[in-house]
Amino acid sequence: MVRYDQGAHSRAKLGFVLLASEQTIEDDLMRMRPAGVGVHFTRVRNSDTITVDTLRAMRQGLADAASLIAPEAGLNVVCYACTSGSVVIGEDEVIAELGRGAPHARATTLVTGVVEGLRALEARRIVVGTPYLDEINAIERDFLERKGFEILAFEGLNIRLDTDIVRVSPKFIYEFARALDKPDADAIFISCGALRTLEVIQDIEAALGKPVVASNQAMMWHCLRLAGIGDRLERYGRLFQH
Predict the structure, then answer these.
(1) Helices 25-32 and 215-226 meet at what angle, rounded to 10?
(2) 242 pLDDT exceeds 90?
(3) How far apart are CA 20 and CA 46, in angstroms?
(4) Domain check: are 47 and 100 in the same one?
(5) Residue 20 belongs to a domain with what CATH number?
(6) Which CATH number fits the domain that encloses residue 202?
(7) Cβ atoms 99, 107 nearer than 8 A
(8) What number is the average pLDDT over the span 214-222?
């Protein structure tokens, strides 16, 4: 007779809707995945050119993409894994679309995780670095200010192609973060799941003596906490001690 157990992912199952062009998030989330937690992916069609219009166009594909993530497995959480898309489309609209596709999972967005992470760190005054065009930066800055954060510095790299964002070196990200910092900033937020910030997050925190929030780190932290997983992970910044 066949014997069954609870499966490899008995603690929680997390689902992520990635951009079709995405090349960084899967590696980062698998690196942070605690034992017993499943991390499952699907993708939504997008243009390699990242503008306000191309980000907004993804909205129509979110529900269908979410519906394809292990539909019989019992997902605990489903998340749209795009910082800029989350602020351009809007948190509420993204969550509604994900809920249509995966109605039994708790729906959230990457930028929701960022906001919750900054609040957990009690960071009110922040500096922000992004790879985005100015038209996207203006929307993100407004979003963060409406969430109650005081922005001491906000700088974008004006990179248009997603395939170029993934090629920004971690060493540059480290230098970028250090240049952005202000003495009275409570935390540094490096925005974008395509950036390889996770590789240098501890180095930045050690150099500056303050917490760093990165898109993929905050998203994973938030999704784990939503699923009831409170593990404190090493090597991924101060946030994971909350």
Answers:
(1) 50
(2) no
(3) 6
(4) yes
(5) 3.40.50.12500
(6) 3.40.50.1860
(7) yes
(8) 98
Tell me whether residue 186 is in a domain.
yes
Question: Could you tell me the pTM of the whole model?
Answer: 0.97
Q: Is pLDDT above 90 for 41?
A: yes
Of the pLDDT bands very low, low, confident and very high (cuts 50, 70, 90), residue 162 is very high
Residue 74 lies in a domain: yes
Nearest-angstrom CA–CA distance, 11 and 21: 30
Is residue 227 situated within a structural domain? yes
Q: What is the mean pLDDT of residues 63-70?
A: 97
Asked if residue 73 has pLDDT above 90, the reply is no
7 within some domain: no
Q: What is the pLDDT of residues 187-199, one digit of tens each?
A: 999 999 999 999 9
The count of structural domains within the chain is: 2
Same domain, 150 and 208: yes
Give the separation between CA 129 and CA 235, rounded to whole angstroms. 21
Based on the fold, state whether residues 43 and 120 are members of the same structural domain: no
